[in-house]
Amino acid sequence: MLKTAMLWLGILLSSCTWFSRPMPPKATPDPATEKRASIRQELAVTRDARTRCLLHLHGAVLDLMDGRDPAALGTAIARVCPDGWDAGFKALQSLLAGDPWSLQEHALRFLETTSVPGRDEALHHLRLLAAALLVDADIPDTSFTRRLAMVAMRDPYLPAFLWTGVPHLLREVAPPAQTRTLGTGLTFSRSDPLPLLGRLHFSRPAPVTGGSHWKDGDRLSAGSDHPARVTLSLPLSCSTPGPMLLELRSLGPASVRIDGVLDAESGRTPGVEGGIWRLQVPPFSGSRTLVISLVATPRAGAPRLRLVPSSACSFGVDPFPSVNARRPLPAWLSPFAGLVVATLDASAGSFSGPRAVLAGITSGKPRFMLARALFTRMILADPSLLPETARRLALLQTAAFPGDGWSLFEQARIAEVDGRPEQAMEKLSRLDSAWAIVARARLALETSGVPTAGDTGGVKFGAPLAGLLVSSRHHRVFLTAAAAVRRRDPRLALAYLKPALALRPDLPDLLQFHLQTQQFPEALAEGLRLFTAGYLNETLLSSLGSACLGLRNLGCALQWNDQRLADDPVSEPAFLRRLDVLTALGHDPGELFRELATHVARFPYHRDALLLYWASPLFRQTTLPDLKTLLDLNWGKDAPAVFLLNREEHFLSSRGGAFVRVTRWVRLNTPVAVEELGELELPSDALILDVRTLKADGTVYPPSSTPQKSSFSLRNLEPGDIVIFSYLRVNAPVPGLPGRTWGPRFQFSHRAFPTVLAEWVVHAPLDLPLVLRPEGRLPGIQRTIDADGVHLKLQSWTGERLPSELRMAHFVSPSIQVHAGFSEEDLYALFAEETPWPDWDSLELAQLARQLCPRPSAACVPETARWVLRHIRDDRQLTRAAHILQRRAGSRIHLLFALLRHQGYHPRMLLARASRISDGPIAWPDPAEFPIWLLEVPGFGFIDTRFSHLPPGRMVPAVGGSEAVVLSPRPTTVRLGPASPQSRTLEARARIALDRSAHFEIREVSSGFHAVQKLDTFARLSPEALREQIQVDSLQRYFPGSHLLSLDWKRPPADREELTATYTFSAPSVCAPADGRNLELRRFPFPWNLRRRFGVFLPRTTDFLPNALPDTRLELTIEPPAGMRVEASPELNLETEFGRLHRQLVPGPGRSARLILEKSLRPEVIPVARWKAFSAFVQLFDEYETLPVVLVPVR
After folding, report:
1. Has this prediction a pTM greater than 0.90?
2. Strand positions, DSSP E, 780-851
3. 693 with 701: CB under 8 angstroms?
4. Hey, where are the domains in the chain?
């Protein structure tokens, strides 16, 4: 009975458990499946042709994402849609087949035929994708350009950034009133603030005759007649007020007007990186008109514009409400829309986000070949990736599909870039397209000069390419054919060039052909045709001058060359050709030399003109000191070598830049110096003037030059010889700052050899402001003024070598530096510009700042600093915050500065010096010599970004308590906080064996800067590399022959600078026999060895600042071998003004003992007068630290 009751009770409980289970969640319906079902239902009841076409189009997009063949989808679309709607899928099929020419033709036809009223999201995104694929189109002929212009004018919202390379063709196919706003492609409305980047077409006004000469630094007024002035008018419309950043890449002066009112102007490019001008458009709502005027020379290409709004704004010339309306995307279209938007962003220059989007699409839809092909193209085009990395990642994508057309296309591109044309041609031979045939013929021509076998009109050329000549409408077919037969049959090459010229009348190939075949009348006629048609550039003017020279018409050559020089006054080849022509015309050599001198004074960085100027017999040589006078002083006889003369002569230009003549005379005193100076290495950019060896009897030996190197082998050198050499170095002006020059620093004394006479001379125009930056003790400067300008001269008779002591605290090497064209206010402004732009330069930056600090609190600054320290690899070469965030590498301090500005803080950048380098006065900083950069946040403290594990606010010993200068318009000096304390505790156990080896177990606890340095190393290295470094750098140094057995370390919390590490190792021969059967333990874990570290065996003539060593405590438990015990020893205590050491040996259980060693050093300056006392302290410290522990037998 009881069993039956228990059975029914179990059944009842199990049924209750079953019925009490929660209902399983309903499966989320697949949007694509629901859309397919909806399409089938609507097709069953819909009879409208347009609606049925769009429904089939939606189904085709779904099938495309599932991996269906675009060609089959296009065939199905052609049955139900108007003519040309299938061209979009044909374009995608051409992309997958690796046929770019067919791709651009089908994409353009699709854009032409699908421009219909009403907006369908799937059709709209297909059109956007087709327009994005046309961005890098290879224009085949002018008819293609005309059709493209009509599409862009009819649908201005398309991202048709197409006119960068063909503005001359655009002028032919569309009126100027329409081309002025054509191709902007920025008519988008974004509720989320996203950056919009595009290549915009700027209209260029007709040249004004009789205009005044433009000078660098002039402002660009509204009615300016600058010959290269261009203008863009861009309407803006914002629904809500918000700041907007304008980034403009120009080449010189620029101005921005908002509704006709001047908002900003500049006579130069005020950006630091890449010549980018950044300014903030004031917040507004409604409509505004932005008019941008700037200088863009034809040879430099079109400028770039970037608008970054922080609110919903629209841009363009004709904002249609239907286009700007924000519409939610259907869920089934989201993957395809994400692909399209990523492709658009990549075409606009943004790659990191789009690559992540396409990587997600390819992993979620592995059969979506279109996404994989676009992903591979995006990888190869991404400039943020190293070329080797990009090629490796692209080959990983193509490896799974080696036979697909897009894969062969990309593999051929990679092989060609890597210098493997045979492999590239093998890949191209498997592609059946006109582009592949032409590319294969071009590679064959470039590699061997003989195309593939075939016969066309008696000329070996290549049957496939010859077949294309009959029906091709692409100019590159004819250009490749002409290049292939140019040497063998010039007439046939000319016959091929004429069809190419008919397709693209702007091509200069026919002109170059006439020049190469010395058909100068035909070349001149062709050049005049191009010039009359408006295809004006520097190459055309140079070719016209070459044609005139070929005709022996020097006047004609001078006319075209002068026009070329007027268009580009900075062109050095144009000026040198002018000199040649004038010389041939018989002009006065003195007049030509004065013109050459004027040119060198304006452009001292033109190397060829500089050498011509210096080698001229009319040049007035500089008077050098008398060699005999320098030898009679008999200075430096005991040194291996002596610099008799170290001279630098600077010739500065008012337009920026300079050249420097360096003259040095070196006497070799010993055979060691003869051996060292047998090969004279000069700077790679040096222009050699004179190199020779002077013997004691007056014999002169010229050197033998080393090919392809700036080095000279000096022959027959002997002690007592004098090596004389002089060379020129070019100092280019500061990029983007006309009229400004940074000068190199001149050291008056050599570090190793004594110097007899050092001279520093400067020649500058009278109106050029100079800023001199001397350091150390220097004599007075001699200043003279004459008709040529101002001349500065500084002579220093040194007579001795510089002290070579390490860690000098109170010594500054005598040197001087000159900056030209700057006032101190200009320099402060330049330093302020080097700080990152605090406004909306990167919306990703603002989003990260909000994530790290969602609400103001005391933890915002340290949390933001920790994120930067842990996620950014420090690299001073990249300082733009947006670029640093994208690449995860760059200047940490610049990124942290920008993030804190976004969070509402006002940090300041500081420049500090290590306290043991110099205590000289801190002058305003030099960008060419960056010291230690720090960041000061008011209310928080100082941040040092050099170490990843240094908690924000802590100071390292090198700069703790020292002075730093603030980067501001007026230099201010601040005192840094004291260095955070550091300590080190070692708990060790040593088990000594009978063979005098030992097994060590050590637990180390460090804090402060000592722990920070080790944490950076531990986190950077792999476990294997870390074990190897500890084995080599630490254990082998103190325990030769030791072997690391285990290593374990614990990562500290984010706000602690602590390190806990445990490691074991074995070491041989740690004991040595002494006094019969006794043993002495002589090796202990990690002594300081101050005597060797500080070099106290050398006398000093300057004050000394010791390294900041951590306070250390060692507790070593010694377990002697069997039959032995630790002998007691007295307690030792050493404490002076320099530091302290406490040593105690405490008996332990059994035969063991515990050695306690506590040591510390005061990081204070040691005066020269106390150096002997400090040396005595160090020697006694080392003796106490390394005093052995005696092991005696047990009686």
Report:
1. no
2. 782-786, 789-797, 815-816, 818-820
3. yes
4. 190-206+218-315, 349-432, 626-822, 833-975, 983-1193
